[in-house]
Amino acid sequence: MPYEGEFAAYLPLQRIADSDQVKALLKRAKRALSESEGGKLPRPQVLPVADSPLPDLVLAIDGSNAEVNVANGYPGARVGYITVASVLLNLKLVDALDEYRPVDPVKFRTTEEAATRPAALPGSNVVTREHISARDSFRAELYDLIHNAVVDDDDHARLIETYEELLRYKPREKQQRCPYSYDGCEIRLSVPAGLTECPCSKRRAIFSTDALRIHEGFRDDSSNGQALGETMQVWEQLLLVHLLRCLEIRGMLEQAQKIAFFIDGPLAVFGHPAWLSAAISTELKRLNAEARKLTGRDLTIIGIEKSGTFVDHFSDIDIVHGRDEPLFEDRSFFMPNDDYIKQRIIYSASEKRYGADTYFGRKFFYKTKNGSRIVANIPFLDDEQDSLLSSELSLYPQIPVICGLLDKLVSSRFENAVTPIVSAHAHAAIPLHLGEKVLKQLAAALMKDGK
After folding, report:
1. What is the residue extent of each domain of the chain?
2. Contact indicator for 298, 409 with CB cutoff of 8 Å
3. Percent of the chain having pLDDT more than 90?
4. Distance between CA 83 and CA 57 in Å, rounded?
5. Distance between CA atoms of 353 and 342, rounded to whole angstroms?
């Protein structure tokens, strides 16, 4: 293992890449066929212009996390810090300002409203209250974080209500280990809502958030970046569902057609809490069915991937050797199906569809009207959409609207990025406007627009 801050130089790394062992390994490895070898290239199609108007508001959600060393007398003591930011962008104001270029930066900032929520969680060697381990301290603080998070001051709807509604969808037949298995408890259980007790003789506390199983990856003696990352992604996805449910409770779900929800990253839940993905999908389908009854339109929800395998693949296939022009025209899109993903992007011979256990949506490639490449995700909003077998555009009527938004919002500052996500990330990285409440802003903007 290297010392802290010590990195290998270029030449030693190059020697490894050129070694006989690496070359022999690559000869045994599967290789994707090039076009000249019979490999298939996608056939992008130019999108029709959206029939429906673009949403008036964009709500973007993004999070960040970090771990810091703390001094409590124990070596290796750490605390995790998470922020999740939401930025509300008024596109009507943006359009109005666009008519008077160059836009005054001060006036442009009035088109955005931001809310940032910070949280601190125990890491290794940080034991709180009367708990007997850092792991139990983490579990208790995670429950408090979700339980005490109030998105709006007016109706006091707590994030825990949405989480425990999703918990109802978790399959009960597959029980999990007791959170105290590290201390010898052999009970297996289905974690219920609320604050309960382990049925063993010690009757120790069980939190509803234990069902997320994030604590199973907690490390008592080293970094807990994985646990923090899983907590952050759960918080981001819960916030999306929670805001939609709050609109429904307020009788404002009909107004959701005026909002586009942007999430940083794929529409998926990875790691220990992956079961939450199917629960979110079920709830989004229910909410979308209600929205369709009221408006005749699907909800507009988009995940944006800034990096990763799919982003790399899009770049690789667009610039094909031997071609004078890029493969993708401006305003063209391609939605990879399951076979394409397994043959060309992430090799797999499995009969289970790609992302079956983690994704509540699917990916598509879009080249905007200014030539930017975007890898976006759209959710499965009904059972017919919930498949990777077909790439038929008619199954996803919101795609032209989504791509119209991407044309409008693509960032000129960062590759593979859209402006609302850039803003949300800036607020997540630097805690600003700590007292503001996003749902209050959203409701006020919708009611103002309805006058």
Report:
1. 45-123+236-450
2. no
3. 57
4. 23
5. 9
Token code pair at residue 397: 């009527």
Residue 51, classed as helix, strand or coil, is coil
CA–CA gap between residue 318 and residue 365 (Å, rounded): 10
Evaluated on CA atoms 263, 229, 192, 438, the torsion sign reads negative
Q: What residues have CB less than 8 Å from 48, skipping those under 6 apart?
A: 400
Per the CB < 8 A criterion, the answer to whether 213 and 245 are in contact is no
Residue 31 CB-density burial (10 A; 0-12 exposed, 13-18 middle, 19+ buried): exposed
- pLDDT at 449 (0 to 100): 54
What's the rounded Cα separation, in Å, for the pair 23 and 172? Answer: 48
Distance from C-alpha of 390 to C-alpha of 367, rounded to nearest angstrom? 20
- How many Å is the maximal CA-CA distance in the chain? 73
Structure confidence by residue, pLDDT tens digits, 134-183: 999 999 999 999 999 887 666 678 999 999 999 999 998 889 999 999 99
* Strand order from edge to edge, sheet including 300-305: 45-46, 332-334, 361-367, 373-379, 300-305, 259-264, 57-69, 78-90, 112-122
What is the structure's pLDDT at 432?
35
Token digits of residue 351: 């009969």
Which has more confidence, 276 or 42?
A: 276
- Dihedral sign for Cα 94, 97, 101, 105, please: negative
Alpha-carbon torsion 196, 158, 234, 382, what sign?
A: positive
Tokens at 117, concatenated: 């929520």
DSSP per-residue codes, 94-152: HHHHHTSSSPPHHHHHTTEEEEEEEEEEE-TT---TT-SSHHHHHHHHHHHHHHH-BS-
- Nearest CA-CA partner of 360 in 207, 160, 169, 232: 169
**Whole-number average pLDDT of the chain:** 85
For the chain, give me the number of helices (H) and strands (E)?
A: 13, 13
HSE of 262, CA atoms in CB hemisphere, 13 A: 32
The number of CA neighbours under 13 Å toward the Cβ of 96 is 9
The reported pLDDT for the residue numbered 154 is 67
Is the Cβ–Cβ distance between 56 and 67 less than 8 Å?
no
Q: Degrees (nearest 5) of the Cα angle 337, 342, 348?
A: 145
Q: Amino acid letter at 265?
A: G
Q: What is the mean pLDDT of residues 239-268?
A: 94
| Position 195, amino acid | L
Q: What is the pLDDT of residues 147-160, one digit of tens each?
A: 998 876 666 789 99
Question: What pLDDT does 38 receive?
Answer: 58
